[in-house]
Amino acid sequence: MHPTPTPLRVGLIGAGSISRVHAPAWRSLGADVVVYSLHGADDLAQAHGLRPVASLVELWEQVDVVDIVTPTHTHADLALAAIARGKHVVCEKPLARTTAAAEEVVAAARTAGVRLFPAHVVRYFPAYARAHAAVTAGKIGRIAVCRFRRMSAAPRADWFFDEETSGGIVLDQMIHDLDQAEWFAGPAVSVFARSVTRTDARDVRAASATVTLTHASGAISQCYGVWGHPKLPFSSSFDIAGDSGVLRHDSARQDATRVHVSEQQGESYLPPVDVATSPYTAEIVDFAAAITAGREAQVTGTEGARAVQVAEAVLTSIRTGDAIEIPPLPAGSGGGDGLTAGVAFASKEENR
User: Fold this and answer.
1) 274 in Cβ contact with 24 (< 8 Å)
2) Within a domain: residue 26?
3) Tens of pLDDT, residues 179-217
4) Residues 313 and 31: beta-carbon distance below 8 Å
5) CA distance to 34, 36, 156, 311, per residue, from 43 (Å)
6) Range of 155's domain?
7) Residue 217 belongs to a domain with what CATH number?
């Protein structure tokens, strides 16, 4: 593998909602960014100083790093295509729609000697990062109970509510807090979950899920996720209780004078961010530094695959009504590149 040039040459695949925080993050590093998407590439390029390209073939030829910000069911195939061409990969969560596909991506990257970075951005939110540092330092002792809540307006695009395509609220939204639960309390060994999806008389959809994880350590984690009404502002919270202290955070209580008005809710399933202080920027900075310095990032491909495995266990529990055991993720499982060039992907309203 040849050294990665500076500035980084990045290929962004997809031009939907999440691309609007990835693109400025890369540009803040001075990266040379090209973008390919079936829809919206020209507008995204114009807004952030990128260069649109007409095909994936053209993109592969111009980049060293590929950033995948497309719908969930396309992640694994696009990642495998990039890896087969020797490209480093940043991939929006979840790493893949299934555990088997995620394992295959991890194994392919390992075999090819390229870097793989699942974009679990909550690890880079300051409150979560500080809490994790405190837990790691033993500030609150042995973890006993973790509680996580995440709420936002439901995403608009149809594919989010197609469980076969996206995994629904569990694999798309709650996977953040499933990852956090294991980040704080270690591997989970079983899960019990419930979920409800509704459509009201105005054809407005909403979903919620409640999950209880039992960890190998004996700790218990509870996760609650909501995709709600169109004007529901983004918020998240956690309570991490140990045998010598408690850590708490609630984004909705950080500013008592904050006012939420409907005009601000256009993309409210994502938290509001500023590129200079954005956790998405911190995430991209970490990934870029890991590539150029040859070090580990704060999240690894194996951890991305593990989050998919836990989320799939949650979906199984919801479907069956039973508590589900979660086995350890096999190390080094999967293999093969599994794809040729030109994989097709679609977005209805947005790519991501």
Assistant:
1) no
2) no
3) 999 999 999 999 999 999 888 767 778 999 999 999 999
4) no
5) 13, 11, 19, 34
6) 123-274
7) 3.30.360.10
